[in-house]
Amino acid sequence: MNYSEAMNIALLESLGRQTPILAFGQNIGAGSHLSGLTRGINDVVECEVFNTPNCENAEIGFGFGLMLEGAKCIFIVKQQDFLLLGLDQLVNTANVAVGGEGMGSFTVAFVTVDSGYEGPQSRLNQFAEICSLSGQPGYTVSSRQEAEFILGHQVGAPGFRMIGFSQRLFREEVIHVPDARLLDAESGATCFVEAGGVVIVACNFALPQALLLAERLRDVRNLACSVVSVPRVDSPMSESLAKYLSIHEKVAVLDDSHSRMGAGRLLVSEAVGRLCDASSIALFDRSGRSRDITPNGDAFEVPLQSVVEKLML
Q1: Going from the N-terminus, what domains does the chain have, and what CATH number goes with each?
Q2: Cα–Cα distance, 20 to 45 (Å, whole number)
Q3: 225-230 and 281-284 beta bridge pairing
Q4: Burial readout 92-106 (b: 16 or more C-beta within 10 A, e: otherwise)
């Protein structure tokens, strides 16, 4: 099963548990169904589907209005870039709409174009900045377990949240580890591999790179590494995760977003001093990379030697 199929199944199952819920967005019930993400949504009995034109600011305001009336709804957006068109609602309307009594549910779900530069409006991979501006929770989904847990617990739940999917992973085999262990329900932190005194923490959509790095460290350096994925973007550190990290000697944090202050950097800043000294934790992200203005693969790679040197392994 590929990533797109797994996300589609988890999304439809989460919608099917709500009675009733409105799903709206451009081409979610027609055409390509957002490259298969929403395929079959018209068959979900409990879900009313509304195909909309391109007017993100109005549609996000519409969602907040429904939430204030006690209704459940989800706005599914073609790509993260288009959230910029609704920033007024995400920042100012959210500020006054979220937190009241008798509140319904509003979820904004979107696809991150992280598969390479495809144009000036098809490259945004900076979810942390959007969460920071809005002051609202955000989650990324990199695996089947995360899709089932996050969509299952967030879609239809009271209040507002944003959930991001990765276009880069759409045609890849979905990551599924049957014995993966949930560490923290609030952040969705999940342990996919448990071994050794080194832990690799994946933020944004860096779980595939984290698993590959653990495999290479095992094969080349004979080091057993644990691997943890943290879906929460705005507040990645939790007491449960802090306790888990504290029992490891070394921590490598991977963040494949383009954010200047992404989940990985937030996590490291909280960990240093509180859990460990600066020499036992290292961040591997895209800092220092120039802004993309031409077509490219946008690959995020973590050199093995860099990890060995930074963590003195």
Answers
A1: 3-166 (3.40.50.970), 181-311 (3.40.50.920)
A2: 9
A3: unpaired
A4: ebbeebbeeeebbbb
Nearest CA to 72 out of 147, 17, 127, 131 is that of 17
Distance CA(149)–CA(155), nearest Å, equals 10
207 band by pLDDT with thresholds 50, 70 and 90: very high
Report which of 250, 255, 304, 239 is spatially closest to residue 278, judged by C-alpha positions: 250
Q: What digits encode the pLDDT tens for the residues 18-55? A: 889 999 999 999 888 998 999 999 999 889 999 999 89
Quote the percentage of the chain above a pLDDT of 90: 76
Whole-model pTM?
0.95
Residue 247: which residues within 8 A CB-CB, separation 6 or more? none
For tokens 């800092």, the residue is 287
Task: Phi first, then psi: give them for residue 226, nearest 5 degrees.
Answer: -85, 155
The b-or-e profile of 143-155 (16+ CB within 10 A means b, else e) is bbbbbbbbbeebb
The Cα 226–Cα 93 span in angstroms is: 41
Average pLDDT, rounded, for the chain: 92
Q: Which pLDDT belongs to residue 211? A: 97
How is residue 73 written in tokens? 């709804």
